[in-house]
Design a protein that fits this description.
Largest sheet: 5 strands, parallel
Number of strands: 5
Radius of gyration: 16 Å
Shape: globular
Order of helices and strands: EHEHHHEHEHHEH
Number of helices: 8
Strand order of the largest sheet: 2-3-1-4-5
Strand content: 5-15%
Structural class: alpha/beta
Helix content: 40-55%
Length: 183
Amino acid sequence: MLQSPPAPRERGAAWIGQTIVLVGLMGAGKSTVGRRLATRLGLPFVDADIEIEAAAGMSISDIFAQFGEAYFRDGERRVIQRLIDGRPKVIATGGGAFVNDETRALILAEALAIWLDAPVEVLAERVRRRDTRPLLRGRDPAAVLRDLAAVRNPLYALAHLRVASANAPHETTVRAILEALGR
């Protein structure tokens, strides 16, 4: 028997115990904040990038290098679809996951999407600490992030909730999310 998809949730809708999916640009704190948020809510935490690497048997950098971004995004979509299985959890996504139309529609229909929004300057400072991001290799992080923000921020704005990820301890962002969730 075919079931119709769930009705899309309203923007700004309160949390009712479903899966929470954190979206936003690289460096916004999705993984670190997600782990802490999951602990505070008593939910499992899943980092979609780690799940993608496990499914592919290679690093994200290697997937990009060998197969390209389109191939990676397709695998990312399939992994996120598997993770949103009806059991509540907190999922941290990669920065580009929410840009994919199918992935975004799935997240918006079946989870609570929270955009962790941070100024480009804050993001650039955070991402300079690690050299693991394929989109930044050999490029100026601030310039890349400004370009990505111009394209992606209007899509992130479709998330149910927007929470500032300021240049402050991660716990500040966790508290802001909990407050937005009514917790």
